[in-house]
Design a protein that fits this description.
By secondary structure, the protein is α+β, with helices and mostly antiparallel strands. The chain is built from one helix and three strands. It is 30% helix and 17% strand.
Length: 71
């Protein structure tokens, strides 16, 4: 089973997302729900192409945490 971190960012026109461990795997969308669907489709497409080309899937090398600060 593969596990990859997805980074979501709010933009001026909607949302964007990317997968740090899958170089070039990005998606955009007007809403977060749309970008979530788009990035999952992009990951599937990316991994399918790698499989077809017999390229090893990269290991998960990134992680994230959210910290809350009272200022």
């Amino acid at each position: 089973m593969l596990k990859y971190l997805i980074i979501f960012e709010k933009t001026e026109t909607g949302f964007s997302a990317y997968v740090p461990d899958l170089r070039g795997c990005i998606a955009t969308g007007r809403t977060k729900a749309i970008v979530e669907k788009n990035i999952l489709d992009a990951i599937r497409f990316h991994l399918d192409r790698m499989k077809e080309e017999k390229i090893k899937f990269p290991l998960n090398r990134t992680d994230a945490e959210t910290f809350v600060f009272a200022v």
